[in-house]
């Protein structure tokens, strides 16, 4: 689902409010997907191609075995194209693949946006990948050493639940507010504070 300008502003305003009381930095990320998953396209192409030839084989009498090929090829093309739909791409992608790709993409975005380079090592990235329906929260060592052991797990679970209910923007805002409170307790804003990480929502 596309994020509107209004929804983007809601998230960015939540960042500004949270960071007005802390020296920490929060980066929100909502991506459509973390990878193209080409294997899903080829898997579905093979399955649909096979089913098309199987149906043709049982429905019609034919003398030339090559005629199966002329049915199978369009079926494979159809299967490849159907995998562009999120439902089928998820269906033909293994959970382990998605977990790995989401984690790798989250790490890339984290370092590309220099979340690990804040002065007090208090950067947090809240990462949502919509296709995979997965959430990752990456926190630098400064803040990570101060929060409770299961704090991040709880944050991820709550945001994932919100996404499952179709409330990804509301869930992101609540997650930002929660991180802001945690940062405020351990790292209150300083007189010489500067904005070290962009407040803009990353969507691609």
Describe the structure.
By secondary structure, this protein is mainly α. It folds into 2 domains: 5-35 and 95-186, Diaminopimelate Epimerase, Chain A, domain 1, CATH 3.10.310; 38-91, no CATH class. It has helices at 5-19, 38-59, 66-82, 86-91, 95-112, 141-144, 151-164, 168-186, and strands at 25-31, 123-129, 134-139. The chain has a 3-stranded mixed sheet with strand order 1-2-3, sandwiched between helices. A hairpin with a 4-residue loop joins strand 2 and strand 3 (134-139). Helix 1 packs parallel to helix 8 (168-186), helix 2 (38-59) packs antiparallel against helix 3 (66-82) and helix 7 runs antiparallel to helix 8 (168-186). The longest helix has 22 residues, at 38-59. The two termini are 14 Å apart. The model has no long low-confidence stretch (mean pLDDT 92).
Low-confidence runs (pLDDT<50, min 5 residues)? none
Termini separation comes to 14 Å
Q: Give helix % range.
A: 55-70%
Structural class: mainly alpha
CATH class assignment of the largest domain: Alpha Beta
Oligomer description: single chain
The overall number of domains is: 2
Main β-sheet description: 3 strands, mixed
Strands, total number: 3
Helix run count: 8
CATH topology of the largest domain: Diaminopimelate Epimerase, Chain A, domain 1
The backbone outline, from C-alpha atoms, is elongated
Which sequence of SSEs, written as H and E, runs from N to C?
Answer: HEHHHHEEHHH
User: How large is the radius of gyration?
Assistant: 23 Å
């Amino acid at each position: 689902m596309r994020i509107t300008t209004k929804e983007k502003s809601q998230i960015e305003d939540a960042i500004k409010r949270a960071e007005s009381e802390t020296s920490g930095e929060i980066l929100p990320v909502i991506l459509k997907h973390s990878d193209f998953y080409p294997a899903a396209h080829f898997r579905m192409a093979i399955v649909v191609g096979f089913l098309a030839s199987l149906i043709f084989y049982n429905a019609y009498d034919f003398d030339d075995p090559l005629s199966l090929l002329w049915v199978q090829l369009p079926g494979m093309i159809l299967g490849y194209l159907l995998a562009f739909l999120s439902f089928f791409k998820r269906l033909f992608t293994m959970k382990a693949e998605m977990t790995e790709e989401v984690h790798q993409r989250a790490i890339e975005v984290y370092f590309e946006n220099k979340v690990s380079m804040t002065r007090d090592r208090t950067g947090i990235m809240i990462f949502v990948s919509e296709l995979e329906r997965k959430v990752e929260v990456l926190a630098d060592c400064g803040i990570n050493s101060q929060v409770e052991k299961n704090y991040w797990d709880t944050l991820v679970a709550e945001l994932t639940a919100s996404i499952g209910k179709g409330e990804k923007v509301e869930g992101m805002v609540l997650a930002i507010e929660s991180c802001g409170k945690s940062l405020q307790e351990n790292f209150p804003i300083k007189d010489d504070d500067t904005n070290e990480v962009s407040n803009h929502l990353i969507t691609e």
